[in-house]
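Hey, can you fold this one?
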Amino acid sequence: MGYIETSDAHYILLLQRTLKVLHLSDMKESGITTVDAYIASFPREVRMMLESLRQTITSVAKHGEETIKYGIPTIVLGGHNLVHFAAYKHHIGFYPSPSGIVAFKKEFSKYKTSKGAVQFPLNDPLPLTLVTKVVKMRIKENQALTKKQPSSK
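Sure. Predicted structure:
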């Protein structure tokens, strides 16, 4: 079993509750099991934004694995969730964990945020340079978690 800090467990619970409220946890039941299928399920303009965000994240997290968790695209690195992202009616949600929001509080101040999420309005360009910085910070955090994880030998 993987190592999860208390704050991470709280963040995961918050993410699950948010997705249930937004009815996005039904994505799995709808047959969407890949990031490609998730992105393809949106209108062209939103698909372009999601692909741009995906490309930005994966260009930094070169060894990350794409999957669907909690009904949304997730990048996993070193056995730990790195970031999640999703599309909604009026925004793109980016979930870099609470630490990602706190570390870039000033930069995220122009956006709506919560404990572990930020909302990028669909009618604004995505702040891809900022996303790159956040993903780099999260990679360092995940590497530290992996080093802390007890050996299974």
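Residues 1-6, 19-28 have pLDDT under 50 and may be disordered. Let me know if you want another pass with a different chain boundary.
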